[in-house]
Write a structure and sequence with these properties.
The complex is a heterodimer.
Chain A: E1 4-7, E2 10-13, E3 18-25, E4 31-37, E5 44-50, E6 53-57, E7 64-70, E8 73-79, E9 87-94, E10 104-105, E11 109-113
Parallel strand pairs in A: 2-11
Antiparallel strand pairs in A: 1-3, 3-8, 4-5, 4-9, 5-6, 7-8, 9-10, 9-11
Chain B: E1 3-5, E2 10-14, E3 19-21, E4 24-26, E5 31-38, E6 44-50, E7 56-58, E8 64-68, E9 73-78, E10 87-95, E11 101-102, E12 106-111
Parallel strand pairs in B: 2-12
Antiparallel strand pairs in B: 1-4, 3-9, 5-6, 5-10, 7-8, 8-9, 10-11, 10-12
The chains are: A mainly beta, B mainly beta.
């Protein structure tokens, strides 16, 4: 798991707060992803960045705002969240020039919205 | 559209017995298939994948999976389960040019 790191590992925030999740990959990959994992629900793809360009936004509410300043770093900016946004947020990376290569995941940030 | 089904929410097996975690998929074209494992409070860890070639693929920690094109299945197997194999297992599919689609997960419990 050291190939993809995420900070913080745990975050508790109120509905009026603004916070950011950070992801860094040390694998030389060119694509990065944000997923949301809620209890008893399938993994939900939120955003995809390919060569730093956002290529996918799966109807995610605007209170989630991604940022990819370079191919190694990915942020998820959070503001005015709702309690139903409480979940494990996972970052992943892959090498997109070659099909069939697996994604590598970080350990996740456990977010609790109060 | 791609989809993945894992028909069992929970699989229980005794330590030392063989285990199978089932996965079926739907995809246009040739699939790339993956298995991941997730331990509590951790991210998903890659176990194995099928891209092409031999239908039986071997992966980490003694796991293997068999690709069956006619049944559109990719079941995960291990000849002898360990208590430490208890975790959440995800099957994933990817078609060329598409994003990953993950199944809902199967919780494996290996009983001592």
């Amino acid at each position: 798991e050291t190939g993809v790191t995420q900070t913080p590992r745990h975050l508790v925030m109120g509905m009026t707060n603004k916070k950011s999740l950070k992801c860094e990959q040390h694998l030389g990959h060119n694509a990065m992803y944000w997923y949301k994992q809620s209890a008893k629900k399938p993994l939900e793809l939120m955003f995809v960045y390919n060569f730093k360009e956002q290529t996918e936004n799966n109807s995610v509410p605007s209170r989630f705002s991604p940022e990819c300043p370079n191919s190694s770093h990915l942020f998820l900016h959070l503001h005015t969240l709702q309690p139903e946004d409480s979940a494990l947020y996972l970052c992943a990376s892959s090498q997109e020039q070659r099909e069939g290569l697996e994604q590598y995941f970080g350990p996740g940030t456990r977010l609790t919205v109060t | 559209a791609q989809s993945v089904a894992q028909p069992e929410d929970q699989v229980n097996v005794a330590e030392g017995n063989p285990l199978t975690v089932k996965c079926t998929y739907s995809v246009s074209g040739n699939p790339y298939l993956f298995w991941y494992v997730q331990y509590p409070n951790r991210g998903l860890q890659f176990l194995l994948k099928y891209i092409t070639g031999d239908n039986l693929v071997k992966g980490s920690y003694g796991f293997e999976a068999e690709f069956n094109k006619s049944q559109t299945s990719f079941h995960l197997k291990k000849p002898s389960a360990l208590v430490s194999d208890s975790a959440l297992y995800f099957c994933a599919v990817r078609a060329y040019g598409q994003n990953f689609v993950f199944g809902p997960g199967t919780r494996l419990s290996v009983l001592p």
